[in-house]
Amino acid sequence: MSGPDENEPIDPTDALALRAELLAWYDHHRRDLPWRHTQDPYAIWVSEIMLQQTQVATVIDYWTRWLERFPTVEALAAAPLDDALEQWAGLGYYRRARMLHAGAQHVVEALGGEVPTTAAGLKALPGVGPYTAGAIASIAFGEAAPIVDGNVERILSRLFGVEGDPKARANQKTFWAMAAQLVCPTRPGDLNQAMMELGATVCTPKNVACLLCPVRHRCVAFAQGRVDELPGKVQRAAAKTDRVVSAIIWAPDADGHPHLLTVRRPDTGLLAGLLECPTVEQLPSGAAPRHALLELIASLVDAPLGLSSPDALALCGEVVHKFTHLHRTFVVYEGRLPAPAPVTDPRAAWTRADALADAAFSTAARKVYRLGEAQPPEDEASGG
Ligand code: SF4
Asked: What is the model's pTM?
């Protein structure tokens, strides 16, 4: 790696030239994205949270609908968490929605509705780390705050030939020092977005478009023919695997509309607060899956007539969902009740089949209940 010292790893003259080249390129090649038409820090905050782990093309629709539903930080803070989770459904990584909701409440209750104007202040909000704080501060408030994310790591490691795991502590220190040197005092938001844009459209993880790159002439990886080797591999712990059992339980109401038995997950941990079908995550040793599910259902609803025998649950199939650190196999059973039995657990509810799409299910839970849709119960009301 080149560079005179660890606080200024880029030669200062090179840093100035690189900054100018990136800004000139951004001025001509920036995509027209809806959040680039606003200076509203709340709207930019929402976009930055959604863009973590989600593609721009997907975020555009979600961001637009979110701002229609919760146009201000006050509107989000006043809404029930469920509404926020429903609006987030399908984007995955639901912790982001919970943190955004908690952050909005903090801004309204503790900060008089004013979003903090500096990266240091923004970092105190739930779910806002150094990257997001820098992005919001630079774009919405013009603070010369650096940002480092996967895009920036990739560009900098290729440009300057930074070897090894990009997440390693020493490399992170180098990237943040480089980003701080590059961030433009007069156009910090544009410089940061130029880096994000270059990483998203040109200096991509695969199929790198070096011939379209405005800084190719100073790129170590390009000059050495090592673009595919940099950045180095991230050392990750192997994902765990497990198997759980779930039950899709349908019951028609008095008008014949099918309802699905749903359970809200605990308020902390994996998929906190989201809906799912009754699921046993840890089978007691030696327990049969159907027995364990019947026991769980009996703890959720009163007198589940029609589900008294394990045979009442038919095996539907299996579905796998990959969380970041966990590959989970759901073994799915299906059963019917003659009517929605009264719920006895506050986390349980009956959800009408035609309202499932709008309910706050996780992506994993949707995969589960859709397994049973091959044989949907007849909606007696719609049949006349
Ligand atoms: Fe990335 Fe290629 Fe540009 Fe280097 S030349 S910064 S590898 S796009």
From this structure: 0.73
